[in-house]
Amino acid sequence: xxxxxxxxxxLCAGSLALPLAAWAQSADLAELNARLAPAYAxxxxxxxxxxxxxxxxxxxxxxxxxxxxxxxxxxxxxxGTVGDHAQLLGRFTGGYLRMTTSLPVSVPGTGNVSTRWxxxxxxxxxxxxxxxxxxxxxxxxxxxGVTRLSNRTGYSGAAVAFQPLxxxxxxxWDSDAWIVTPHLGID
Length: 187
What we know:
The protein is α+β, with helices and mostly antiparallel strands. Helix content is 22%, strand content 56%.
């Protein structure tokens, strides 16, 4: 598994697991949502990385299990040339991500919160591949896309008491977003 992908999954999983593990101990929704926002951004970013891949990851951390499934379909095509040493490229990416986990209430066996985040989106963009000499190319690119992130959560046992507090704010919601991503690469 690619180390960069491992780091992104660990960041995403850790960003979700830590604040959610403490959710029953604090009713400060603004603080909890602020902690979760970077994890949501990571899910959307993972969904639209411009590559061709599919994967299933299972992360076990301190008894917390997180399953992550993602599929991305990326394509790039030469649209034409720009001068003698550059190519104009068109790019397209479609992606899907699903992450599930179950969060126990502070007293084990008394209930839990089973939650699933789903993200999907489409993006497109342009890149210019400049030959700067000695077999090295510089590739600036710009992508823009739309995504949807949703959460579906079920409560059981003692966790049912927390449903009115978190419903529609932390859990069980949908969000649409647009993403603009500049890139700069060297080949």
